[in-house]
Design goal:
Radius of gyration: 23 Å
Bound molecules: N-(aminocarbonyl)-beta-alanine, zinc ion
Strand order of the largest sheet: 3-2-7-17-18-19-20
CATH architecture: Alpha-Beta Barrel
Largest sheet: 7 strands, mixed
Distance between the termini: 86 Å
Protein name: Dihydropyrimidinase
Cofactor: Zn(2+)
Shape: globular
CATH superfamily: Metal-dependent hydrolases
Family: Belongs to the metallo-dependent hydrolases superfamily. Hydantoinase/dihydropyrimidinase family.
CATH class: Alpha Beta
Keywords: Hydrolase, Metal-binding
Number of helices: 15
Pfam family, one: Amidohydro_1
Number of strands: 20
Strand content: 15-25%
Structural class: alpha/beta
Length: 483
């Protein structure tokens, strides 16, 4: 069946204009005037934008002795309800486990996804098997690899492993990702705080100051540069980390930074709430920061030194958070955010003048589609693109409350925030998943999106690496050895 979106204003990362959008099956087939189809979607007073892409989610993730509570069904329903039409989750092999086995496990989990999805692969250990399997992982369309510099004794990799993995990424044209926090320093600070009797959720923030993030970000950038690889820094939360990214980009390095909507909007005072549950529900790594850091992140988005706003959606119930009563290091790290990312960012970004509408589209969709090499299939309103489209009503308001959310957990870190600007209709590859603000997502509709290595970036980096490679100087008249 064909569909046409009529009377709306199209907003993309580059421009804003009036036109109708014609959809056949799962694709956009025409953009123009006076287009007609079997089914008409009225977009009067609305903006028509590419569906959001959240490149950082953890659905049903085994972590800190439990599993994150949203699975691919509830997580992607939550995503669609807030205008996100694609998520990128993580295959997480346990130390020693085959990467290919981890892909099979995640493929079994994702069968009921309501929107399209892709994966990053986490590098949780290093060895010949991992080195070899990385090629097969890339061949299967997973072209980005996450490295945890934190979570010592669990997921953390050391510099030696990271350098080897980044070099392998460079060979394969893959993109390394880092969770940048100095895990050794964090582990020592945690023990010190506990020994001093600081066992509450506020100690989580004390144990992860911005310096541990700035140092790790800078280290990862330098290691990636030496390996000849680009670098994507996930959940950039502070000026120290942003500064390292900004400096690297000014030097011409291909480094990308991703703040989360939570870090942009929620600050460290959340951890000092008298209510233990309130504070623990907001425990995530890196932790929320103060207003100066938030200002730095907002500035980075409009200046272009930071490119993407994600959520790192990793939702735990209150009961799960209570595993850490008496020892903050046992509170499962992670917060939700998938369904609120776009409405909160629009309200706090576009409605305040911090972002233009076009910048909003860039940081929620188009930039990451380009970085992940899936543009313009995703992240664009052009003929031939997947019909992942939001019809956005800028006047619609709601107060965020956990009682009305799609996510499976029992609270919402944005509880009580009034948003203005919501998705009225959402299409996922041509299927209507939200109609007049009502969620109609279909489990099983989502498909895996395979990705190709980014040839242009890897060609540029390998050409440069070859030009500056060490070369033996051929000399005449070498003196005799002095021995
Ligand atoms: N960020 C967080 O606290 N939890 C999710 C896992 C991770 O990405 O670190
Ligand atoms: Zn992380």
């Amino acid at each position: 069946m064909s569909k046409v979106i009529k009377n709306g204003t199209i907003v993309t990362a580059d421009r804003t204009w009036k036109a109708d959008v014609l959809i056949k099956h799962d694709k956009i087939v025409a953009i123009g005037h006076d287009l007609h189809a079997d089914h008409e979607i009225d977009a009067t007073g609305c903006y028509v934008m590419p569906g959001g892409i959240d490149p950082h989610t953890h659905l049903e993730m085994p972590f800190m002795g439990t599993y994150s509570s949203d699975d691919f069904e509830s997580g992607t329903r939550a995503a669609l309800s807030g205008g996100t039409t694609m998520v990128v989750d993580f295959c997480l092999p346990s130390p020693g486990q085959s990467l290919l086995e981890a892909i099979d496990m995640w493929s079994n989990k994702s069968t009921r996804a309501c929107c399209d999805y892709s994966y990053h692969m986490a590098i949780t250990w290093w060895g010949e098997q991992v080195f070899n399997e990385m090629q097969q992982v890339v061949d299967k369309g997973i072209t980005s690899f996450k490295h945890f510099m934190a979570y010592k004794g669990a997921l953390m990799v050391n510099d030696d492993e990271m350098y080897s993995s980044f070099q392998r990424c460079a060979e394969l044209g893959a993109l390394p990702l880092v969770h940048a926090e100095n895990g050794d320093v964090v582990a020592q600070l945690q023990q010190k705080l506990l020994a001093e009797g600081n066992d509450g959720p506020e100690a989580h923030a004390y144990s992860r100051p911005p310096e541990v993030e700035g140092e790790a970000t800078n280290r990862a950038i330098m290691i990636a540069d030496m390996a000849g690889a680009p670098l994507y820094v996930v959940h950039t939360s502070c000026e120290q980390s942003h500064e390292a990214i900004r400096r690297a980009r000014q030097k011409g390095m291909r480094v990308y930074g991703e703040p989360l909507v939570q870090h942009l909007v929620l600050d460290e005072s959340e951890y000092f709430d008298k209510d233990w549950d309130h504070a623990a529900r907001r425990v995530m790594s890196p932790p929320f920061r103060n207003k100066q850091h938030q200002d730095s992140l907002w500035a980075g988005l409009s200046a272009g030194s930071l490119q993407v706003v994600a959520t790192d959606h990793c939702a735990f119930t209150t009961e799960q958070k209570r595993y850490g009563v008496g020892d903050f290091t046992k509170i499962p790290n992670g917060t939700g955010g998938l369904e609120d990312r776009l409405p909160v960012l629009w309200t706090k970004g576009v409605n305040t003048g911090r972002l233009t509408m076009n910048e909003f589209v860039a940081v929620t969709s188009t930039n990451i589609a380009k970085i992940l090499n899936i543009y313009p299939k995703k992240g664009a309103i052009v003929e031939g693109a997947d019909a992942d489209i939001i019809v956005w009503d800028p006047e619609k308001t709601k107060t965020i409350t956990s009682g009305a959310q799609q996510s499976a957990i029992d609270y919402n870190v944005f509880e009580g925030i009034e948003v203005k600007g919501l998705p009225k209709h959402v299409l996922t590859r041509g299927e209507i998943a939200v109609e007049n603000f009502a969620v109609k997502a279909k489990p099983g509709h989502g498909q895996f999106v395979g990705r190709e290595p980014h040839q242009a970036v890897s060609k540029a980096l390998s050409t440069w690496k070859e030009l500056v490679a060490p070369r033996k100087v051929e000399r005449t008249g070498i003196p005799a050895s002095g021995v």
